[in-house]
Design brief:
The protein is an alpha/beta fold. It has 18 helices and 13 strands. The chain has two domains: about 170 residues, Glycogen Phosphorylase B (Rossmann fold); about 180 residues, Rossmann fold. The strands form two sheets. The protein has a seven-stranded parallel β-sheet with strand order 3-2-1-4-5-6-7, sandwiched between helices. A six-stranded parallel β-sheet has the order 10-9-8-11-12-13, sandwiched between helices.
Length: about 375
């Protein structure tokens, strides 16, 4: 069978890689062509475009690069038409994928979507387009199935693939990890400023402003695989911090607390049971637009899934050094940590057990065979 998979960022690359592993188990003759990253490339198949070439964040940033985005779309359609896959699998990345899905459906291709666009957060009217253009939707958040049911669209809840990704990772010893990266004995505060240049630029400098106030801790930056150290070095300057690239899970497994950019990383941090402060700061124009169309009470996946404030969110103008110091001190306080750990354990139960990637792969494969 021929599979064409489109993922658009680091988290999509992770979930795409795990899905590909399961597809290869089921279909030894699988021919997979994909848009993704290093993790998917390491599994096999043919990489068409790396996500770091398309890492545009926010409304204004996309607008500035509109000609590039349109060029990628045109090329993608041409490549799909030439490859003639048995099925297209879209992973998150709604701005790009929903447009390709519309075209693909008109061309008669089978369209599957894994990890739903966040239509429950904004522009719910897109559900109409999804019903028209997507043959099968696989969702990973428990509240998404009920959301789509309101629009008479039946979707499959498969559990969250991060459960698998974290459970199946190779374990790292704390002592060995510290020695390899020369981390000393201080408790570690992980800094996860995101994966795109725009968000790293806006958030890392504020995170680093805390280093001198918490000298009894070791601050460690989780470098994104899509960015070179030279880019981070411009922001780090002379700050006494460590930098570890492309080993976020290893870092979280040994961390005492974390400052985390809003996104998938907030959920990953929670599943590693690390107390965190969620941070977000976007471009002023993009933020003003988003504020007017997003209808959610929270921005972090942890709070959205639990439907209450489990982790503190410092958003836009509230993301300052002064407020970050206050909130970090709170999650370092042993009195507050026990309650947070209990909330994290409840979160994990709600997300379901292992097997998301396997369930999706089986459903896709069986559907093609029919």
């Amino acid at each position: 069978m021929k599979y064409y998979i489109i993922a658009g960022e680091a988290s999509g690359d992770l979930h795409g890689a795990n899905l590909m592993k399961e597809l290869y188990k089921l279909d030894e003759q699988a021919d997979i062509r994909f848009w993704g990253g290093d993790l998917m490339q390491n599994v096999g198949g043919t990489l068409v475009s790396h996500f770091k070439e398309r890492a545009f964040m926010g409304f204004f940033e996309v607008l500035k690069n509109l000609s590039k985005v349109l060029g990628f779309m045109k090329f993608c359609k041409s490549d799909i038409a030439q490859f003639k896959p048995d099925v297209l699998v879209f992973i998150d990345n709604s701005g790009f994928n929903l447009r390709i899905a519309k075209w693909a459906k008109l061309q008669g291709f089978k369209t599957n979507y894994y990890i739903s666009p966040q239509v429950w957060a904004s522009r719910a009217g897109r559900v109409k387009d999804i019903k028209r253009d997507v043959d099968k939707m696989f969702v990973i958040l428990p509240f998404e199935k009920a959301f789509y049911k309101k629009y008479d669209y039946e979707v499959s809840f498969v559990g969250h693939p991060l459960i698998d990704a974290i459970a199946d990772r190779q374990q790292v010893g704390i002592q060995k990890f510290r020695e390899e990266h020369n981390l000393g004995i201080k408790p570690i505060i992980a800094l996860l400023p995101g994966s795109r240049k725009q968000e790293i630029t806006k958030m890392l400098s504020v995170m680093l402003s805390l280093v001198d106030d918490f000298s009894e801790y070791q601050f460690v930056i989780a470098g994104a695989p899509s960015q070179d150290f030279s880019f981070y070095q411009q922001i780090i300057g002379s700050k006494e911090v460590c930098f570890i690239n492309n080993k976020t899970y290893d870092l979280l497994s040994v961390s005492y607390a974390a400052l985390v950019a809003s996104g998938t990383a907030t959920l990953e941090t929670a599943l590693f049971k690390v107390p965190q402060v969620v941070c977000y700061k976007g471009g002023s124009i993009s933020y003003q637009i988003a504020k007017r169309i997003i209808t959610l009470k929270f921005i972090s996946l942890v709070n959205l899934i639990m439907d209450k404030e489990v982790v503190i969110e410092l958003i836009q103008n509230n993301f300052t050094k002064q407020k970050l110091v206050v909130e970090l001190r709170k999650i370092l306080d042993p009195k507050n940590r026990e309650k947070l750990f209990l909330e994290y354990f409840e979160l994990e139960q709600i997300l379901g057990g292992k097997g998301a990637s396997e369930k999706v792969a089986k459903a896709i494969y069986e559907n093609i065979k029919k």
